[in-house]
Specification:
- It is a single chain.
- The chain has nine helices and twelve strands.
- By secondary structure, it is α+β, with helices and mostly antiparallel strands.
- Strand 9, helix 8 and strand 10 form a beta-alpha-beta unit.
- Helix 1 packs across helix 2.
Length: about 325
């Protein structure tokens, strides 16, 4: 089978890309003996039938489909470009050895750093880690979601959402809905939310999905006013240490590669961005057109936000006038 694709029609041409975001490592799932035949059919449909001029794919660097795509792309007069992008690579921790061995494998200041974080949190009051995992229970699920939303509204992301007109984190909503559905139908699929509470107030969370020996760190957030306490790192280190103690998990997957993840001794698996475009469309032209489209979308979005602000202000003026009358 093929991974689901998203087709878009821009101002100038059609483009295709994976429907799923890069951090879930989308790829074509094809039996080896049919790989070349299936990818030829894929390119024929996307390029010739659907008339897509650009195909953008984020693939694991070790994907067996990469050399085949490069090979068959010439038959369809497509230019194949492959670019390694560090920010979309995948950080993993392999749960091997004891927790003591794990700590010894970290950098020299590792224990001192987390000891200082723990002391700083202790000085601010009573704290505890709470885990909500029985999400088949609707009350538990709603309680967990409400706690996450409270933290999200206290995070730095809330200001960004207000500026952009977003009311909710769509990725979080998608992951949450999919997790609840999978947890109810697949006994191997587990979803857990780890909360850090300080003085009976939740100040940070980490949403973890466990499946077939891997713990996926999917979404995390913390209250901005507690940033100096490093609540996100503290929760993640608590989870990592717990996995080494319990030995129920073989791999911890951060899904992406952000600078703070180098706090731990992680192994990074690169991903690549593959672009296939018609040979008559130069790379420079593609970049210019995409930049123009992006700018156009920004203008449209800015106008929407401005319209909302004006509408809100007019409503306030009208309400004030009504009170005077």
């Amino acid at each position: 089978r093929l991974a689901p694709l998203s087709l878009r029609k821009n101002l100038v041409f059609k483009s295709a890309n994976f429907l799923l975001p890069y951090y879930v490592s989308p790829d074509f799932v094809v039996a080896n003996e049919y790989r070349e035949e299936v990818l030829r059919i894929f390119l024929h449909i996307i390029s010739n039938k659907l008339k897509c001029k650009i195909i953008d794919l984020d693939l694991p660097a070790e994907s067996q489909n990469l050399p085949i795509l490069e090979k068959v792309s010439t038959d369809y007069k497509l230019v194949f470009r492959k670019q390694f992008i560090d920010t979309i690579s995948q950080c993993l921790i392999f749960v091997q050895g004891s927790s003591v061995e794990y700590e010894k494998s970290q950098e020299s200041h590792f224990k001192k750093k987390f000891r200082r974080i723990s002391i700083n949190i202790d000085e601010r009051g009573e704290w505890k880690i709470i885990i909500i995992d029985n999400l088949q229970n609707n009350q538990n699920a709603q309680k967990a979601f409400d706690k996450m939303m409270i933290i999200e509204r206290m995070s730095w992301k809330e200001k960004w959402r207000l500026q952009t007109g977003c009311t909710i984190d769509k990725d979080l909503q998608w992951i949450w809905d999919a997790s609840l559905s999978a947890a109810n139908t697949n006994p191997d699929f587990k979803c857990k939310i780890w909360f850090l509470e300080l003085n009976n107030q939740a100040i940070g969370y980490q949403l973890v999905i466990e499946y077939k020996g891997t713990a996926f760190f999917t979404k995390t957030s913390f209250a901005e006013k507690y940033r100096q306490l490093s609540p996100g790192k503290f929760i993640q280190q608590t989870i990592i240490a717990e996995q080494f103690k319990k030995r129920e998990i073989e791999t911890i997957d951060f899904l992406t590669n952000l600078p703070y993840m180098k706090t731990w001794n992680v192994t990074c698996f690169p991903r690549v961005k593959v672009t296939l475009n018609k040979s008559f469309i130069s790379n420079l032209f593609v970049k210019k057109v995409m930049a123009l489209i992006y700018r156009f979308r920004q203008i449209i979005e800015s106008r929407k936000i401005l319209a909302k602000v004006i509408s809100k202000r007019l409503f306030e003026i009208n309400a004030a006038f009504s009170l005077r009358v």
